[in-house]
Amino acid sequence: MMNVLRTIAERLSRGVVFRRRLPKEYGRGRIFVSPDAGLRFCRANLAVGDAILFKMANELVKAGDVVWDVGANVGLFTFAAANRAGKGGEVIAIEADLWLVGLLRRSCTLLEHNRNAAVTVLPVAASDSLGLAKFHIARRARSSNHIEGVGSTQTGGTRSIEYVLAVTLDWLLERVAAPRVLKIDVEGMEHLVLAGATAVLSKARPVIWCEVDPVNKDEVTRILHDHDYDIFYANQNPSQRQPLAQAPWETLACPRSPRPGSPNLEPEVERNVAKHPASR
Predict the structure, then answer these.
(1) Which of 54, 157, 205, 243 has the smallest count of CB within 10 Å of its CB?
(2) Rounded to an integer, what distance in angstroms lies between the CA atom of residue 210 and that of residue 173?
(3) What is the CATH number of domain 2-196?
(4) Average pLDDT score over the chain
């Protein structure tokens, strides 16, 4: 019965848009959200269903930072990061779903007079090569949209297929400011996104927060370790984090040697890395 009611609610939510306020810690600015991207957006309190997005923005993003949000969805992390980075910062929001891109751009117009970092919305997918890709719009929440060949069991099938432009993060690095913080949530594409980010990982060396599907954990771990990153469980108190042998679902990856001139890492993370010299 619950599944039937959920299915009905998801069907009725298609195209529905609400204006919601960000939590007060992020300026209380209004953004556009939709239960078509997840029924949790029916709630007025955005922090209830996506607390970790705000938690990681608060922990990782500092004033003046450049942030890349790969898989921006409706932009909770994007706009929380923009508030944290402030006028001196910049946020690049990467989203392949053109309908969600429309919401992101509308939200930008609501927040353009606030004291937030500039937000650039790029309507592309991130992958390991340049080209066209088949992009599946999930029958259920748009947060489960995915490139053909990957994706979760939460899609409920495909309502439509669109062709989207796929770029690599290294291609992007040649055209926009290098990130200090890189967030990746791409429904099973994370290993391909990282495979196309060799220069980003070796030269820009951002702190990375990445959702990792268990089927990709070995490849993600290999890529991060090959580029001299320590891996932590993001959804844990920073003072309790210790380097892990494999990437967990909520992966926090910190470069053991940041690029010259880059801002310091989160102090708690720096201390944890320093306490484990064997992992260097």
Answers:
(1) 157
(2) 18
(3) 3.40.50
(4) 91
